[in-house]
Write a structure and sequence with these properties.
It is a single chain. Strands 1-3-2 form a 3-stranded mixed beta sheet. The two termini are about 20 Å apart. It is mainly alpha-helical. The chain is globular, with a radius of gyration of 16 Å. Helix 1 packs parallel to helix 2 and helix 1 packs antiparallel against helix 5. Helices cover about 50% and strands about 10% of the residues.
Amino acid sequence: MSFCYRDLIFLFNQCFADTYNTCLELGNDEPIYLPADAEVSHHRIIFAHGFFASALHEVAHWLLAGEARRTQVDYGYWYHPDGRDALAQQQFEAVEVKPQAIEWALSLSCGFPFNVSCDNLNGNVEPDRHAFKARVRQQALCYLDEGFPPRARAFMAALQRHYRQPVLKAADFG
């Protein structure tokens, strides 16, 4: 199956451009979320370099963000770039569990491979990818049992229809 970021842009914008005044857009550099301002009348989720996985990841953050967070650049979140020490890596992973659980569900909804991201290639600590993935998986299973956030459910359904994927079940998060 072919995975084209243009399909994600189309599907996302079809789902949310009118109802949330938010569009998914291709970017050239670092991903960022930009709320509407005096120059651009809609909110923008900008993903990096046409990477399908980057688009899914950035969308996952938006699907999780509440109304107040969606009025702030990058949702007002703290971000410590690659090169984190042990404490900063622990903080990074703590805030990434939920969005990466949603990203995993979005990936499965497309039939696209998911890779957990510890995002610390130049840090002075080696992240435990297996432990982090286990936490992300546990969160995904909690969402599966208790319900994904409403916007995530809507986008997952759109992806499943487009990519002809079945409704998710626990075994999918193996």
